[in-house]
Amino acid sequence: MSDYSASPLLLQAEGLKLRFGGIIAADGIDLSLHEGEHLAIIGPNGAGKTTFLNICTGYLRPQGGSVRFENREITAQPPRQITRLGIARAFQIPQLFAEQTVLENMLLAVSVRERHWNPLRNLHAVPERREMEGLLELVGCSDVRDRVASELPEGKRKLADIAIALALKPRVLLMDEPTSGVASADKFDVMETLMNALRQAKVSSVFVEHDMEMVSRYATRVAVWAQGKIQTTGAPEVVLNDPDVVRNVIGG
Amino acid sequence: MSRKSLDAFPDHAVSATAAAEAPWPVRRRHREKYAMNKELLAFIIVAVLLAVVPFTFGTSTTFIAMSLAKGLAVLGILILLRAGQVSFGHAMYFAIGAYAAAFLSSAFRGIDMLLLIGAAILASGVAGAIVGIFVTRYRGIFFGMVNLAFSMVFYSILEKAFHITGGSDGMRIRRPTLLGMELKRAEFDIAIYYVILLFALLSVWLVWRYLRSPMGEALRAVKSNETRLEYVGLSAKSVLLGGYIASAVLCGIGGVFMGMVQGLATPEHAFWTRSSELVFIAALGGPAHVAGAFGGTVVFEAVRTYAAALLDDSWQLILGVTLIVIILWAPGGMVELFRRLTGLDRAKTLTPEAGR
Predict the structure, then answer these.
(1) A214 phi and psi, to 5 degrees?
(2) Which end of chain A has fewer CB atoms surrounding its CB within 10 Å, N or C?
(3) pTM to 2 decimals?
């Protein structure tokens, strides 16, 4: 496994603290992402993994600590601003524009990216239409291109959600259990397609995952999140064989 | 987003689909074009029919002029319905349009009609922007109620400040000149009819284009998923504000026309029943298509006028029953009924209300 610490730093969280009532979600979290990395975050349910994504995208304001993106302070900026800087997000429960077709979802996203605000031009006439169709092909959603988003099967919804995030040409993609909801027989196919798409588009990623097989295959680095702290971080083959991790996270 | 990341997607990912997409999208584009031509044809036919009204049904000229003026306001309501929002206070902008004309025409004798219209657009647009900044924080019932509150405050001011606004008697709007020409009563009625028609056709075209543009599609996204909207980098509030200002301006234009046709601006124009009347008509006509706004207004006004002639005080009853029927069996309004009857509903997706 190659070492990415020499490549440019993209995302850097330092000393993040956040608690909800008595629950400590983050208690001094330091985590960074370098260009080209695919960082998996694992840990027990309710440990605060999704909270981390929420803080990074500005949805939640941490009680302490900071998040930097390409050396720019982004802590607690509104999500739309952070998105425009180049951090896109895919959700555990897919967030689509339910009334519109999958292609229209993409075209709307790309219109925001390119600031196409001419009120007289049809959404379908934006010049990036081909690019969006190509992207749908890339994530395996071409077959549902013209279907209304609310009618899609769960697996396709998940992929469409990721496609929308990719339509923004992000530098970093944050994913929350990218293959949950996908039929288990298709999981690896979907993840394979997805990671290929990310590599082709040169997008780095952070993904929260429960499936260790998935983590060992696709992550370049793993961070173990438990009790509001990063217990260990390192290459998957090392971390996943660490007896402490096996006992506390995987086994338990 | 940085320049560097814009180059992130390689071209071969794009060109891969160009070959694969050949056969059926071509057919689809044909069908779309065909459907659009039919719509354009219908638009032209209706425009021509309306243009000859003063020569064929001269007695209904004023009736249709007033319907078109109100239809413009309903078109404004329709924009907000796209975002899933219902305003119970838009009659305020209608009144703002009428009063802008009233103030100007009492201050400057023989002022031109186009200036009055310009003033109404400006006044309603500015008012829409100011009020919009507050109300676009709210959604659903709260959005409707906050709008209602603003409009009723405005209504009270119009009524109470009688030394400025003439109180409940309102203000006269003197007959304006048109492009410098002084017009007699009968000439003016014809002239203003054509001006209203022109503005109505222009507005229909503009709104139709707007609702299909990225901005208009983003309005639908306000209704379906604000979280995703925020996470593609867009503020739902500003999208809604854009739609809100557009709707306020349309109501303002409707108001100035109504005021000029009647020669009067009264606080009554801003009263809440007028606001809900606009919403009623929008629901009757159907929010899925711009034609619904005007179709709904003509039916509404016709029922009100002719039912009153047939049977005293029956029009509320008739319209009430009509609305119940529409809500229960055709939630997409007259537009949906029309599509069902003509079999067009398979070609286009209906509003989700219709699907429920």
Answers:
(1) -60, -45
(2) C
(3) 0.85
Q: With a cut of 80, say whether residue B204 has pLDDT above it.
A: yes
CATH code, domain carrying B181: 1.10.3470
Question: What is the average pLDDT across B1-5?
Answer: 38
Residues B324-347 have a mean pLDDT of 77
The type of residue at A176 is D
Q: What is the CATH number of domain A6-86+173-251?
A: 3.40.50.300
pLDDT 10s digits, B98-139: 999 999 988 888 788 899 999 999 999 999 999 999 999 999
The pLDDT assigned to A155 comes to: 84
Q: Can you give the residue ranges of every domain in chain A?
A: 6-86+173-251, 94-169
Name every chain B residue with its beta carbon within 8 A of the beta carbon of A201: 8-10, 13
Task: Label residue B43 by pLDDT band (50, 70, 90).
Answer: confident
- Burial B117-132, CB ≥16 within 10 A → b, else e: bebbbebbbebbeebb
10 Å CB burial of residue B189 (0-12, 13-18, 19+) is: middle
Mutating which of A10, A123, A176 best tests the B interface, going by the most B Cβ atoms within 10 A?
A123
ipTM attached to this prediction: 0.89
State the residue range of the domain holding B214: 30-344
Counting the structural domains of chain B, the total is 1
Q: What residues are paired with A66 via a beta bridge?
A: A14
Q: Let me know: does B348 contact B212? Beta carbons within 8 Å.
A: no
Mutate to test the interface with B, among A99, A126, A128, A193 (most CBs of B within 10 A): A99
For helices B185-212 and B214-224, angle between their N-to-C axes, nearest 10 degrees: 70
CA B69 to chain centre: 10
CA separation for the pair B277, B90 (Å, rounded) = 10
